[in-house]
Amino acid sequence: MQQLISRRKTIKIIASTIAITPLQAVANKNIHSYRWNSTALGNPVEMQIYTINKVHLDKIILLINSEVRRFNKIFYLQDGSSKINLLNNNKVLINPDPELINAIHLSEKFYKISKGSFDITVQPLWNSYSSGAKVNFDGIGFNNIDISKNKISLLNKNTEITINALAQGILTDRIHEILLNSGLNNHLINFGEGKASGISPNDNNWRLLVNNEYLDITNKGFSVSEPESTILPNKKSHLFNANNYDSASNIPGKTTVIAKNATLADGLSTTYAVSDEKIRKSLIKEFPDVRFIISN
Fold it and tell me: At 208, phi and psi to the nearest 5?
C-alpha cells in the first residue's frame, strides 16, 4: 500500500505525520510511538513519530514546540504581541529576528518575478475586506518597506505586511532541518505546506495525491493554494493581486507546486495563483525543476 497525502478543498485541519521506521516495526516493544498535537501560526497541527530512542524523542519534541512558539511570536498576525504586529502598529521594528528579515527579502524576490502581483503589503486589503471598512490603498506597495540588518521600517502610515504566503513553508523547512540534524532522515511534514524526506513507513517513496494522480514528492517540498480555503465576508478570496488592489481574478481552483523545499513551493503556489497568464508562463519557464499542477 502506498503512503499518500490528500489535501481537502477547504483546509481547516492541517496534519503532520513523521515516521522514521517501517510501519510493521511499531509492534516491537523497543519502538516508541508519540502523537503530538498543537497549533502553528493559527492552524491545528498533528505529528506522529516512531523511534527507538525515547529520550532522544523527548528532546526533539521540546525543540519543535519551542520553534513553533518562536515562529508564532514572529509571524502570527492574530497574536497582538508578535513581531509582525509590532512592526505593523509602530511602523518600525528594531533588531528584528533574522527569520523576519529573510522572509521579507524572499518576498521581494517573488514581488519582482510577479511584476508586483505578489506583495506582502496587501494586509490592509485583508483588514478592510474582513471588517467591511473602506480600503486605503495608499500604503500598498513594496516600495513602502525599508529594511536593514538592524531595523525594518514601514514608510507609509497605512502600510501593513503579512508573511502568510511564506511563513508556513519557512516553518516546515525549519522543522525538517531539526529532524535531519537529529538523525531522523525518513519523515513527512505537513504544516499547511509540506516536506517529505527519505522513505515512507512502507519503504516506498512519499507520494502526493493530486487529481487522481500519485506524484513522487520524496526529498521535496510541496504547497497547495486554493481560493476557497478562506473566503472573506465580501465573498472574495484571500488571495490578493496587489496590482489590482483586490482579490485576484481567474484563480485556479487549486494550484499545487512541488519544489526543492516547502518555502519555495509556498511562495510559487501563491505567486502563480494571484498572477496573470503571462506571469504564470514565465514562472514555469524560470523554474524548470519545479512542477506546477493546476486544477480548475
Answer: -105, 130
Nearest Cα residue to 224 out of 236, 241, 208: 208
For 185, the grid coordinates are: 532522515
- Residue 189: all three cell numbers together: 511534514
Give the Cα separation of 195 and 177 in Å (integer).
10
Q: How far apart are CA 271 and CA 127, in angstroms?
A: 21
pTM here? 0.87
Segment (H or E) for 151: strand 151-154
Q: Give the separation between CA 206 and CA 218, rounded to whole angstroms.
A: 5
User: Which helix (H) or strand (E) element contains residue 280?
Assistant: helix 277-286
Distance CA 19, CA 30 (A): 15
Contact of 74 with 100, CB cutoff 8 Å:
yes
| First-to-final CA distance of the chain | 29
The answer to which of 28-32, 225-229, 237-241 has the lowest mean pLDDT is 28-32
C-alpha cell at 44: 491545528
For residue 104, what are the CA distances in angstroms to 86, 108, 165, 215, 264?
15, 6, 11, 31, 14
List own/partner pairs for 289-293 with CB under 8 A and 24 or more apart.
Answer: 289/259, 289/260, 290/257, 290/258, 290/259, 290/260, 290/264, 290/265, 291/215, 291/257, 291/258, 291/259, 292/255, 292/256, 292/257, 292/268, 293/210, 293/211, 293/215, 293/255, 293/256, 293/257, 293/258
Contact present, 215 and 257 (Cβ < 8 Å): no
The string of pLDDT tens digits covering residues 89-146 is: 999 999 999 999 999 999 999 999 999 999 999 999 998 888 878 888 999 999 999 9
Torsion region of 91: left, alpha or beta (phi above 0 gives left; psi -120 to 50 gives alpha):
left
d(CA 12, CA 172): 17
**Contact call for residues 183 and 222 (beta carbons, < 8 A):** no
